[in-house]
C-alpha cells in the first residue's frame, strides 16, 4: 500500500524524530536523497548547469544543501533567492563553501535559468499556502520556458500538500523528490499532474497507522481478489443482479453485464428491457422481465447505467437488503435519505458532473477539490463514494483513508467504460468484498484493462471489458 499523510502529521513525526537526533540530520538525509535523484536526472553532474529556486523556508534549505552536494561534484550551481534575508543560513553557507553562486531574485537569475540543465524548485514545500505569489510564479514560468529538467523539492510549489488542490499558479515538475512519506497532493489531481514522476526518500519518520490517502499496489489487489475454492457453487461465488439499459440504450446493459461477468461472481442476472441484446452477446446471463424483486436470489445489485427515467427501479433496489452499486442515470434517482437508511453497503460511482449534481455544486468545483468532494459525498449519503476521473478516488462511509487509484489512463475516458466498471465493482460486491474494497479493486482492474486494451491506440469500452481477464491474470502474477 502506498500511503500519504497530511502536513500536520508529517510535522508531528518530524518533531518527535528531531528530538532524538543531532540537529540537521533530517535535512541532511533529505538533501542527500535529493542530490542523488538530481544526479540521476542529469546523468553527468560535472559541468552541468543547475539553478536552485530558493524560498524562505526549509524547503529552500533542502535545495541549498542538495545544491552544495552537486557543486562539490563539479556542477555549476546558482541559487536564486526569493527572500535573501530569510534564506536558510546553514544551506547558504554550505552552498557558498562548495563554490556555488548566489543571486538575489526574483529580478536576478534570469540568464542562469534560461541556460540551466536542471532547475530545483525549493520555493515552498509543506509550508506553502495558496498559489504562488507573483515573484515566485514568475520564476516558475521562466523555469518552464527554459527547457531544463524541472525537479520539485518535496512537493511542487503552489500545490496544496493535503488536498492536491492548485488554487493559483504552481510549479509544473518533470519529477518530484518527496521526503518521509507521500503527501496526498502528490497522488490526487490536479496536484498529481504537477508532480511528474514521484520518488520517495526515506528519512526515518514514524507515522501513524491510518494515512489520509492510500493507493493500492499489485500485492494489495492480489490479496483482495476473490478466488474460487473447490466447493464453490455459483451462490458461494456470488450472484450479481444488473438493472441497466433501456429500449433506447441497450448497449449500457451489455457493457454492465460484460463488466459483471469479469468480476468474480458465479452468475449474472439481468433485469430490464435489453434482455435480447444481452443474451445475444452473453448467453450465460440469467435474464428476467419482471420487477427486480422477482428476479431470484442475488448477493448484490448494480443499478443505473442507461436506465433513463426509471426511478422506480432505483427505489426498489435500494430497498433490497444486499449490497447495491448505483451508477449513471441511477444516481439522479437515489435519494440521500433512502441510501442512508440502508443497512447493507451502498456504493455510488459518479463522474465529476454527476457528483456536482449530487452535492448541489458545479462540475468545476468538484474537479478542483476532488478529495473534499468525494469525502463530502460519502458523508452525505452514508455510503462508499467512487469519484471517477484521471485519479479516481474512493471514500468509505465511516471516514478513514481515501483510496486513490494508481492505474488510471486517459484512454478510459470513452463512452461506456463507466458501465463496465459498474458491473465489475458490483460483481466484486457479490463476491463478498466490502464497499471500499470492491470499488477500489474494481477501479484498479478497470484501469489496468484500459491500459491493456489501449496499448497506445484508442480502445472502446467493450475492449476494456474483454481486457479484464488479462488484468486479473496480471495482478495474480500468472
Ligand atoms: N517535515 C519534515 O519532516 C522535513 C521537512 N523538510 C523540508 O521542510 C519543508 C517545510 O519547511 P517549512 O515549514 O519551513 O515551510 P516551506 O514549505 O519551506 O514554506 C514556508 C515558506 O514559504 C513561504 N510561502 C508560503 N506560501 C507561499 C506562496 N504561496 N508563495 C511563495 N512563498 C510562500 C512562506 O513565507 P511567509 O509566508 O513566511 O512570507 C514561508 O517562509 C518541507 O516541505 C521539506 O522540504 C526536510 O528538510 C526534512 C524533514
Ligand atoms: K517545492
Keyword list:
single chain; 7-stranded parallel β-sheet; UDP-N-acetylmuramoyl-L-alanine:D-glutamate ligase; alpha/beta; 2 domains; about 475 residues; binds ligand NPW; about 15% strand; 18 strands; binds potassium ion; Rossmann fold; 11-stranded mixed β-sheet; elongated; 22 helices
Structural category is: alpha/beta
What is the global morphology?
elongated
The number of helices is 22
Identify the CATH class of the largest domain: Alpha Beta
* Terminus-to-terminus distance: 21 Å
Query: Would you report the number of β strands?
Result: 18
Number of domain units: 2
User: What portion of residues belong to β-strands?
Assistant: 15-25%
Oligomer: single chain
Mean pLDDT: 96
**Biggest sheet, spatial arrangement of strands:** 1-9-18-17-16-15-14-13-10-11-12
- CATH H-level superfamily title of the largest domain: Ribokinase
Q: Which spans have pLDDT < 50 for at least 5 consecutive residues?
A: none
Describe the secondary structure blueprint for this structure.
Elements: E1 2-4, H1 7-18, H2 25-42, E2 49-54, H3 58-72, E3 76-81, H4 89-97, E4 101-104, H5 110-114, E5 118-122, H6 134-146, E6 149-153, E7 175-179, H7 184-187, H8 191-195, E8 197-201, E9 213-215, H9 218-224, H10 234-237, E10 239-243, H11 250-261, E11 267-271, H12 275-281, E12 286-288, E13 300-303, H13 311-318, E14 324-327, H14 329-332, H15 336-340, E15 346-349, H16 352-359, H17 363-368, H18 370-381, E16 384-387, E17 393-395, E18 402-404, H19 417-430, H20 435-454, H21 461-466, H22 468-476
Parallel strand pairs: 2-3, 2-5, 3-4, 5-6, 6-7, 7-8, 9-18, 10-11, 10-13, 11-12, 13-14, 14-15, 15-16
Antiparallel strand pairs: 1-9, 16-17, 17-18
Helix pairs in contact: 2-3, 3-4, 11-12, 11-19, 16-18, 19-20, 20-22
Amino acid at each position: 500500500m502506498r500511503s500519504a499523510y497530511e502536513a500536520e502529521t508529517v510535522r508531528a513525526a518530524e518533531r518527535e524524530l528531531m528530538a532524538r537526533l543531532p540537529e540537521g540530520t533530517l535535512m541532511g538525509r533529505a538533501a542527500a536523497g535529493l542530490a542523488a535523484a538530481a544526479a540521476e536526472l542529469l546523468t553527468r553532474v560535472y559541468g552541468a548547469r543547475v539553478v536552485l529556486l530558493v524560498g524562505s523556508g526549509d524547503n529552500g534549505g533542502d535545495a541549498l544543501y542538495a545544491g552544495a552536494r552537486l557543486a562539490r561534484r563539479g556542477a555549476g550551481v546558482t541559487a536564486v533567492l526569493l527572500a535573501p534575508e530569510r534564506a536558510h543560513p546553514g544551506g547558504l553557507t554550505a552552498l557558498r563553501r562548495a563554490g556555488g553562486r548566489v543571486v538575489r531574485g526574483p529580478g536576478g537569475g534570469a540568464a542562469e535559468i534560461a541556460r540551466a540543465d536542471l532547475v530545483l524548485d525549493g520555493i515552498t514545500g509543506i509550508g506553502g499556502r495558496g498559489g504562488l505569489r507573483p515573484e515566485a510564479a514568475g520564476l516558475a514560468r521562466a523555469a518552464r520556458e527554459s527547457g531544463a529538467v524541472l525537479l520539485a523539492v518535496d512537493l511542487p510549489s503552489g500545490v496544496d500538500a493535503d488536498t492536491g488542490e492548485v488554487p493559483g499558479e504552481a510549479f509544473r515538475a518533470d519529477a518530484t523528490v518527496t521526503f518521509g512519506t507521500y503527501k496526498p497532493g502528490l497522488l490526487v489531481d490536479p496536484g498529481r499532474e504537477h508532480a511528474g514522476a514521484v520518488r520517495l526518500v526515506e528519512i526515518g519518520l514514524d507515522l501513524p497507522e491510518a494515512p489520509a490517502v492510500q493507493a493500492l499496489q499489485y500485492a494489495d489487489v492480489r490479496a483482495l481478489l476473490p478466488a474460487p475454492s473447490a466447493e464453490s457453487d455459483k451462490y458461494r461465488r456470488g450472484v450479481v443482479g444488473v438493472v441497466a439499459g433501456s429500449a433506447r440504450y441497450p448497449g449500457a446493459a451489455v457493457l454492465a453485464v460484460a463488466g459483471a461477468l469479469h468480476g468474480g461472481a458465479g452468475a449474472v442476472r439481468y433485469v430490464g428491457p435489453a434482455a435480447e441484446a444481452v443474451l445475444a452477446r452473453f448467453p450465460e446471463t440469467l435474464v428476467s422481465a419482471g420487477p427486480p424483486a422477482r428476479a431470484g436470489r442475488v448477493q448484490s445489485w448494480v443499478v443505473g447505467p442507461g436506465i433513463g427515467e426509471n426511478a422506480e427501479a432505483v427505489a426498489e433496489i435500494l430497498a433490497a437488503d444486499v449490497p447495491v452499486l448505483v451508477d449513471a442515470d441511477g444516481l439522479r434517482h437515489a435519494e440521500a435519505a433512502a441510501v442512508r437508511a440502508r443497512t447493507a453497503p451502498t456504493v455510488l460511482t459518479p463522474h465529476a458532473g454527476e457528483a456536482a449534481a449530487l452535492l448541489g455544486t458545479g462540475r468545476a468545483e468538484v474537479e478542483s477539490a476532488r478529495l473534499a468532494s468525494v469525502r463530502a459525498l460519502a458523508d452525505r449519503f452514508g455510503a462508499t463514494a467512487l469519484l471517477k476521473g484521471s485519479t479516481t478516488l474512493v471514500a468509505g462511509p465511516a471516514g478513514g483513508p481515501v483510496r486513490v487509484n494508481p492505474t488510471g489512463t486517459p484512454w478510459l475516458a470513452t463512452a461506456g467504460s463507466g458501465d463496465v466498471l459498474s458491473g465489475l465493482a458490483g460483481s466484486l460486491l457479490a463476491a463478498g468484498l466490502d464497499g471500499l474494497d470492491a470499488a477500489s479493486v474494481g477501479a484498479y482492474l478497470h484501469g489496468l484493462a484500459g491500459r491493456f486494451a489501449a496499448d497506445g491506440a484508442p480502445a472502446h469500452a467493450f475492449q476494456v471489458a474483454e481486457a479484464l481477464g488479462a488484468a486479473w491474470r496480471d495482478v495474480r502474477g500468472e
